[in-house]
Amino acid sequence: MVAARTRIAIRHARNRGFTLVELLIASMLLSIVMTAVYTLFHSAIGSWRAVEQDFDAYQDARNLITIFQREMNNILPRAGHLFEGEKDEVTMFIVAEPMNVEEAEGRHLLRVRYRYQRSQKKLIREEALVDMALPKQPRFGEELDRERIKLRKKEKFTIATDLVDFQIRYLWTPRPAVRDEDIPPEPVTPYKVNKHRQGWGLPQGIEIKFVIQDPDEKSKRFEWVSTMPMRAPNAMLDNKMLEERLQGLI
After folding, report:
1. pTM > 0.70: yes or no
2. Which of 61, 110, 143, 224 gives the lowest tally of CB atoms within 10 Å of its CB?
3. Cα 194 from Cα 214, distance rounded (Å)
4. What is the per-residue burial (b if ≥16 Cβ within 10 Å, else e) of 36-55?
């Protein structure tokens, strides 16, 4: 009799099913697991898209600044009078190895120009080998002989993409009229102008400002400002001479 009752109790327990509390606990655990799986999946998809599109704002910014700084360090001092620029482009003559090493190996005299293409959100680097000696700085009142600048093997390279803004400013620090060698010079705020004409010589530095946009999230933008000193001999002018030269620009 006892054995029969035990078998009946076990049969009823098997047919009873889950309680409401057990269902709630199971649902909660399932939700936690699904949330974790979705988070991992979303993170993996985001990483895959970033690799697929090769977008890394910080890496792109470092590359741009590094390349630009390298160009400035390689500027040919005796070609300082040929240095010129606007707020979105700059031209300089440097001695360096071309980017296209298959065309020309080793260090060469190059004309390098950076141009910002706003419509395409790109920064383009143009380089060309200089084939002849560069013209000397003309005397006051004379025109530069541009015909003497012979170029060959012109190349174009895209330095950065997804640039929604790119600006160049040229830094001029006035030379003190009188300086006591025994007293440290006081800090001087440089003039920052967005134009540089041929014949002015090299400025004391360049400031570049650019904004990179995330191609997936258009509202997500990254801004950088970098100031680069000019290592080559530059033109030092006092306040009066600078104001005369930069009239209308400051």
Report:
1. yes
2. 143
3. 27
4. eeeeeeeeeeeeeeeeeeeb
C-alpha distances (whole Å) from 219 to each of 53, 99, 119, 160, 194 are 18, 33, 18, 19, 27
Closest CA to 99 of 125, 138, 130: 125
- Phi and psi of 21, rounded to 5°? -65, -40
* pLDDT tens digit sequence for 161-192: 999 999 999 999 887 766 667 777 677 788 89
Residues facing 116 on adjacent strands: 123
Q: pLDDT > 90: what percent of the chain?
A: 35
The phi, psi pair for 219, rounded to 5°, reads -80, -10
What DSSP line would sit under the chain, residue for residue? -HHHHHHHHHHHHHHS---HHHHHHHHHHHHHHHHHHHHHHHHHHHHHHHHHHT--HHHHHHHHHHHHHHHHHTB-GGGGGG-EE-SSEEEEEEEE--S-TTT--S-EEEEEEEEEETTTTEEEEEEEEE-SPPPPPPPTTPPP-GGG--EEEEEEEEEE-SEEEEEEEEEE-PBPSS--TTSPPPP-PPEEES-B-TTS---SEEEEEEEEE-SS-TT-EEEEEEEEE--S-----BHHHHHHHTTTT-
